[in-house]
Amino acid sequence: MKAVLFTAVFFIALIFVSATSAQTKPDAQAIVAKAVQIMGGDRYLQITTQVGRGRFSVIRENMVASSQSFVDIIVFPDKERTEFKTGPSKTIQTNNGKTGWIFDSDAESLRDQNAGQIENFQRGIRVSLDNLLRGYWKGEAELSYVGRRQAGLGRRNDVIKLHYKDGFAIEFEFADDGTPAKALYKRRAVDDSEVTEEDRYAQFIDVGGIKTPFIIDRYTNGAQNSRINYESVDFNKPIPESVFSKPSDIKSLKKDLKI
Fold first, then answer.
1. d(CA 71, CA 167)
2. Whose CB among 81, 168, 200, 210 lies 3.0–4.6 Å from 164's, allowing a Cys bridge?
3. In the chain, how many domains are there?
4. pTM (2 decimals)?
5. Residue 226 counted as domain residue
6. Where residue 25 falls among pLDDT bands split at 50, 70, 90?
7. Beta strand 156-164 pairing with 194-207
8. What is residue 114's three-state secondary structure?
9. CA neighbours within 13 Å on the CB side: how many for 89?
């Protein structure tokens, strides 16, 4: 009798614990919704364009190896034009969906992007924080909760994953208050070796009721290799379609873009 009673109590307890765990397990969609509120709620979701200005630095052995100014123009979800300047030299990389072109002022060349460059841009969209929080991935990927991960002394982040139908996956980490912390993913290098990439978000600044990270650090296989440091960010400015069109004359590209 005691054995039967003990077994019954054990299974009841097991069912209770399982049910409680299911109820308390964080929901990936809820974590995204909390982050959206942190970023500005409906104001954040209603962003259609973004113009950022700042500096892009290449990091080698924890030191700045080179630095250049940039202007980055985005029309969500898949149009982007980035102009880099170092002294008189200028490079422009422009993408519009599955097409793109590159201008190099030093070589005075204007050419279409190759397949690898287009692929890099498409991957960049997939791993972006905006892609996750605005739901551009829906219909192409599944969202799931991964668990909690160490994020420093006495701190742990919630981790969620976007898993695309073609097998590509990205993990995003969020602090307890909902602030986005990291994006992590793996890619294949030219030699087919596996490379781990990690973007870390920092210095969130309120711009008209919208919070955005003014610093994004990129780590490759655990070593920092670059930093994006915004000096200003503007949202919902009108962007003409001509910004993304490949010009027939490179003379216009030598002038500073007025946005």
1. 33
2. 168
3. 1
4. 0.88
5. yes
6. low
7. unpaired
8. coil
9. 7
